[in-house]
Amino acid sequence: MKDLSFCKKFTILLRPQKVLAMRLTVKKTLKKVLTFLGLLAVAKLILRIVRSAIERIRLSFFAFPWYLHNYIVAYIPWHFLRILSCKHLLGVKIGKNVFIHLGVMFVGDITIGAHCVIGRNCYLGGPIKIGENVSITAGTYMFASTHIKDSPSFEGYYDAIVINDYAWLGARSMVLPGVSIGKGAVLGAQSTLTKNIPDFAVYAGSPAKEVGKRSQALEYELNYFAPFN
């Protein structure tokens, strides 16, 4: 009976409300002791340093797979290995017959449809969703995140980029947050895209504006492959 009574008391002590109450009591007592000793300010400073160090360590562990791929694996001249790293190390969703050139950097949630080609030294900062048979030429930058211009705290935000089937992005073009590129649309080289492109439209310039139309009779299938590239 005594053992049973002890178990009941111990179980009561472990209840969330009791645990919270105990933590608050300990915190108040510790604060009083530190105040009495004149060490409260020092203790708060040490606590901030420890919390900052723990957060840095946590972020380092999270960032390590991205660092490993983007700065080491991305430059290994073996396409199969780069695809494996994207899928299993970074969690990038990749369709069949996708070719990713050397030096492509990935950050965030990214989906790439079948038969796409990503050129050398591109940067894809997600969330980004890419359709099928999309050609993204060398040096293209896509940013789905930025900061609010007038925010007192320089607050950041994300707005997904969507690139539909058969789209073609020229070399060194730049795509900004929240933009959708229509089916078969073209973005000219060195252009900066700040708004949506309709299907089969051709945009160019900085900021990009409509300069023409593309044929709607697109039936090709991109099956690019270059060993050691």
Automatic annotation (TrEMBL):
Keywords attached to this Swiss-Prot or TrEMBL record, sorted alphabetically, are: Acyltransferase, Membrane, Repeat, Transferase, Transmembrane, Transmembrane helix
Q: Pfam families recorded for this chain? A: Hexapep
What residue intervals traverse the membrane? 29-47, 59-78, 98-118
Question: From which domain of life does this come?
Answer: Bacteria
A GO molecular-function annotation: acyltransferase activity
What Gene3D superfamilies does the annotation carry? Hexapeptide repeat proteins
Family annotation (InterPro entries):
Hexapep, Hexapep_transf_CS, Trans_hexapeptide_repeat, Trimer_LpxA-like_sf
Similarity field:
Belongs to the transferase hexapeptide repeat family.
Which PANTHER family does this chain map to?
Answer: ACETYLTRANSFERASE (PTHR43300), ACETYLTRANSFERASE RV3034C-RELATED (PTHR43300:SF11)
Protein name in UniProt: Maltose O-acetyltransferase
Organism encoding this protein: Desulfovibrio legallii
